[in-house]
Amino acid sequence: VQLQASGGGLVQAGGSLRLSCAASGRSFSSYSLGWFRQAPGKEREFVAAIRWGGTATYYADPVKGRFTISRDNAKNTVYLQMNNLKFEDTAVYYCAAKSFTWSLNIAEAYGYWGQGTLVTVSS
User: What is the DSSP letter of 60?
Assistant: First the structure.
């Protein structure tokens, strides 16, 4: 599966953005999907994930209550709605896909990655 992330940009603190990740290839609905981010000088970190069935979602503590991950299998797309953005959310955001449903918060467990989209939050 190939992934294409979009939707990043510059936003003021407290604002919102919605990231999209469009997938090509078959069996999109059978993949679990995740969003990760990497800030300058830092390691890539887990943000959110959604299981292949779309019935369970997982979030990193810093984004709980502010970010929402969702998927539209008919459109082969996964979304990340980001509200109440903070300066520390500034990073390149990557979408990723994997088979099975374990280790959804582990970057190394994902076999497919998008190219990343930059989110910049001004304070």
Answer: -
As a whole number of angstroms, the distance between CA 10 and CA 65 comes to 21
Q: What is the pLDDT of residue 54?
A: 72
CA angle, 48 as apex, 47 and 51 as ends, to 5°?
155
| Residue type at 3 in one-letter notation | L
117-122 and 9-12: which strand pairing?
parallel
Look at residues 91, 73, 84, 74 and name the one whose alpha carbon lies nearest to residue 36: 91
Q: What is the mean pLDDT of residues 81-93?
A: 98
Both tokens of residue 45? 């970190």
Confidence at residue 80, expressed as pLDDT on a 0 to 100 scale? 98
pLDDT above 80: residue 53: no
Q: Which two tokens stand for residue 47?
A: 């943000």
Average pLDDT value for residue range 43-59? 92
Interatomic CA distance for residues 67 and 100, integer angstroms:
23
